[in-house]
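If you are new to this repository, start here. Below is one unmodified record pulled from the training split, so you can see the exact layout before writing a loader.
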Amino acid sequence: MQRFLVGGAVRDALLGLPVVERDWVVVGADEQTMLAAGYLPLSGTFPVYAHPETGEEHALARREVKCGTGHRGFRIECGPDVTLPEDLRRRDFRINAIAEDPTGRLHDPYRGLDDLRQRRIRHVSPAFVEDPLRVLRCARFAARLAPLGFEIDATTRRLLTHMSSEPELVELSRERVWRETARAFAAGDGGHYLAVLWRIGALAALTGGTLLGAALTRLAPPRSLELDRAPPGSELGVTELGLVWVERLLAAAGVADRVRPEEACAVARRLGLPDADARQAGLVRTVARSLDVSPTPSADEVMVILEAIDALRRPERLQRVKSVLERAGGREPAIRGALARLMAGWGAARAVAAGPLAARGIRGAALGQALRAERVRAVGHALQNLVGEATPSAE
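And here is the target side for that same chain:
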């Protein structure tokens, strides 16, 4: 029984990057061997165990044999006869196929050290194409390692382009797509990640059937998209960054003015955003389209926008839309001014209550009409007094 540190822990240590977690592979053992040595079995599909002292994950060396479609279409073979090179061969990239034994000796059967020196992301074996999830993983690694000068090897890029044209990519579950996408967003690498997917055709495939997908197939992909990293002190969460990138992609593809709210929602779903957050993309697009048409909205136009997203009853919606559009629009004066008018109008409209009108005997539909008229009047006064004043926050 031998154990080896593998994968990202070895790669990041060699690159001088922080090691977040350590994974081990065990060669020459089976389940009985692991249990006898005190390892604790962990629930899951694969034979993985927790070290009795450190709690670090130790997996039995295994082979993977393709027997179906998608990233789950594999038969797992593990046992004492599986060698370290066999286990490392099933990994995605050569820089991730380096192992280190407890003495510190490196085992590098696929020349991953050469790729680290050459700053190349290169697949280990032709079996790379059997798992469509690797398209997204490669884009994420490329984005993360780009500041260190890493690039995708030309041969690997051709494989990725081929994999992006296969139906298995779009058949990936939204949860798996979002897991990779969210990790790229959380690391602040969203722009580079999406640009890589655009260059290899994966982004067009994932958003196929939408105006965005059609536009991406015609446009030359950029080296990287803008706003790769959130500004210092940014409080945007991962899903908000996802909404930002929906807007940024629509703008980069030149289709923002033609995409309806429901189609923006569909694009967000294709990127894997959970349903509740994907629906927010429709709200963002509703406001964005309105502000594109009227960059200095009138009092009535402000009320129409607030009503469209139910902002008076759901103020958190307006705050989220504001945060997303500020980032997506790059905080240009035009978007700042439009959002300032919207926020000022929201504060004024929210301050108008129905009670005084009801006290005057106004009832039923007339009450609703009178309430709206009072709110439009209050919004108008707020817009007139906006210059030089701070705008309220939707809390």
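Two things worth knowing about this chain: The two ends are 59 Å apart (CA to CA). The first helix runs from residue 8 to 15.
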